[in-house]
């Protein structure tokens, strides 16, 4: 563009009845200033435009064309599909972003789970710069040694895969994984097996097929017929999965942690093991979407490595290139035996520049001590967040996630929390959680059901309970204990049973003191708190994970 004009988007254009579009004046010296707003009148469908309205958008297009000349109004040519914040950055440094006005922001968005090593990591930046000066693109018609090396390293690190296919994004990786699963059955004499079981709250991408797999109506409306072949069941419902399996079922597709669509819900390890057994019993493939969870976000290279379960196919992207756009799907030799020459392809997928970025990212992540340090930092992060949650229970209801993939379930609209954080120079991103409210309501109802046939509590007990329910943290916040789902109310346990639990815990301590033991093997442990303590629960969860309890 001409000198003195910006190439970046200036604002988001969202058509409403009266849309305001910011205008920017550019001086010939290159300085910018915001001026008045332009009001665009929109007529209702089927009605003539109001007098003076810009019929056909001609004046708007003329202004856009003039944007190429110094001194004229600049507006964005970008399609308004993003609700962009009016904030731009000029550089990044590790976990920090520096805005165009020089202000520093602590970045918890990481480019939406992309910059796993931080902004402008020197090793990744050097690898990209060196290759950009020699070879950017050659196509997949020829061998790419860096790509062969990256595929070998990813397969070895996964512990299950024997083939990798490189592409450009997570949606492409998921499309390839879906095609690979269906082609497997066709190559083995069962072309009718094309249906894939998915889960409510999932998000698998924005192509027509991956949107259908996710099943979220807000992303599907207005794009015509739904792509067939996906059977969605409630998250975590094994009985529903069993009912959905039929003679045309090809695979089960799941995220180890539901992130963007599900509001950070960790899949239960036992549930994942049962899905693996169902696949083995019924001749299905288990497909994991690790686009968000893969490449170190959960303090292992891949999230499935926490579970003891291995998939047949796995999709990767986001952090795979350390900030550079790339995706991939990995597969066993058996699951990939239908993907022969000509069955799948990509022009830009796995170009030399992308593969150099991928190898540089692996260099850092696979270095000795990398994940040990990450686990320590992840525990510290959860403990500090737990402290905030305990002090402000009317704002933060729950902490969820694994490693660095952590979500806070808010008691207020999450957009308000994101805005408040940004005002304090902290960047975060909101995620959907349509199951969270329903789960909380169900928990409250179960509590009422349990207490429904019990005699009224003594007046003194009721008063004490009311005081506990209305008391907030140090910040003076207030909330109902019923909204906290992690803690069991003491009134739900008979005194004799409570006494037995305490006696059993004392006996366990006596048996294990002074020698190594695993007293919880084959048992279920309940933790009872006199008051909510997220910090204690987080430490307990970490101990369980480290000891495979």
Briefly say what this structure is.
By secondary structure, the protein is of the alpha/beta class. Helices cover 36% and strands 16% of the residues. Strand 5 and strand 6 (104-107) form a beta hairpin.
Structure, described:
The chain is of the alpha/beta class and 549 residues long. It is built from 16 helices and 18 strands. Helix 11 (370-391) packs antiparallel against helix 16 (534-546). It has a seven-stranded mixed β-sheet with strand order 7-15-14-13-10-8-9, with helices on both faces. The chain has a four-stranded mixed β-sheet with strand order 4-5-6-18.
Largest sheet: 7 strands, mixed
How far do the termini sit from each other?
A: 60 Å
Radius of gyration: 27 Å
Structural class label:
alpha/beta
Pick out the low-confidence regions: 1-47, 49-56, 66-74, 434-488
Number of helices: 16
Strand order in the largest sheet: 7-15-14-13-10-8-9
Count of strand segments: 18
Overall spatial form: globular
Please give the CATH class of one domain: Alpha Beta
Q: How does CATH name the architecture of one domain?
A: 3-Layer(aba) Sandwich
As a percent range, the share of strand residues is: 15-25%
So, the CATH homologous superfamily of one domain? Type I PLP-dependent aspartate aminotransferase-like (Major domain)
Mean pLDDT: 78
The CATH topology of one domain turns out to be Aspartate Aminotransferase, domain 2
User: What share of the residues lie within helices?
Assistant: 25-40%
């Amino acid at each position: 563009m001409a000198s003195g004009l910006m190439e970046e988007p200036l604002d988001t254009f969202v058509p409403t009845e009266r849309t305001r579009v910011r205008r920017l004046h550019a001086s010939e010296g290159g300085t910018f200033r915001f001026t008045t707003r332009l009001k665009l009148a929109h007529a209702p469908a089927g009605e003539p435009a109001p007098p003076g309205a810009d019929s056909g958008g001609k004046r708007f297009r003329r202004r856009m064309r003039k944007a190429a000349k110094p001194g004229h109004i600049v507006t964005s040519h970008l399609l308004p599909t993003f609700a962009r914040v009016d904030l731009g950055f000029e550089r990044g440094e590790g976990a920090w972003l520096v805005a165009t006005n020089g202000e520093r922001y602590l970045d918890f968005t990481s480019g939406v789970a992309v910059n796993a090593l931080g902004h402008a990591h020197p090793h990744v930046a050097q690898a990209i710069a060196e290759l950009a000066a020699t070879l950017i693109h050659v196509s997949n018609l020829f061998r790419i040694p860096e790509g062969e090396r990256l595929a070998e390293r990813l397969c070895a690190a996964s512990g299950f895969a024997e083939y990798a296919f490189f592409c450009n994004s997570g949606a492409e990786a998921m499309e390839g994984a879906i095609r690979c699963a269906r082609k497997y059955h066709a190559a083995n004499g069962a072309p009718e097996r094309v249906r894939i079981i998915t889960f409510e709250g999932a998000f698998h991408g924005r192509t027509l097929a991956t949107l259908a797999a996710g099943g979220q109506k807000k992303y599907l409306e207005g794009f015509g017929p739904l792509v067939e072949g996906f059977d969605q069941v409630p998250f975590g419902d094994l009985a529903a999965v069993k009912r959905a399996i039929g003679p045309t079922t090809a695979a089960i597709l799941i995220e180890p942690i539901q992130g963007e669509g599900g509001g950070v819900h960790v899949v239960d390890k036992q549930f994942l093991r049962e899905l693996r057994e169902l696949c083995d019993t019924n001749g299905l493939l288990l497909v994991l979407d690790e686009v968000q969870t893969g490449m170190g976000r959960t303090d292992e290279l891949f999230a499935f490595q926490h579970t003891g379960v291995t998939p047949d196919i796995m999709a990767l992207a986001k952090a795979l290139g350390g900030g550079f756009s790339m995706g991939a799907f990995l597969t066993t030799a058996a699951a990939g035996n239908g993907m022969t020459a000509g069955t799948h392809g990509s022009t830009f997928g796995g170009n030399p520049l992308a593969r150099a970025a991928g190898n540089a990212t692996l260099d850092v992540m696979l270095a000795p001590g990398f994940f040990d340090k990450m686990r320590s930092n992840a525990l510290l992060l959860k403990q500090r967040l737990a402290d905030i949650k305990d002090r402000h229970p009317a704002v933060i209801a729950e902490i969820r996630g694994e490693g660095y993939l952590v979500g806070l379930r808010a008691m207020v609209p999450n957009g308000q929390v994101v805005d408040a954080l940004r005002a304090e120079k902290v960047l975060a991103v909101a995620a959907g959680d349509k199951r969270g409210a329903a789960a909380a309501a169900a928990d409250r109802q179960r509590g009422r059901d349990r207490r429904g046939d019990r005699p009224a509590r003594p007046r003194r007990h009721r008063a004490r309970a009311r005081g506990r329910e209305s008391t907030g943290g140090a910040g003076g916040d207030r909330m109902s204990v019923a909204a906290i789902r992690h803690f069991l109310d003491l009134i739900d346990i008979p005194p004799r049973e409570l006494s037995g639990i305490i006696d059993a815990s004392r006996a366990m301590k006596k048996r294990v003191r002074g020698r190594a033991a695993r007293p919880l093997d084959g048992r279920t442990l309940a933790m009872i708190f006199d008051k909510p303590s997220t910090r204690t629960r987080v430490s307990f969860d970490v101990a369980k994970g480290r000891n495979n309890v």
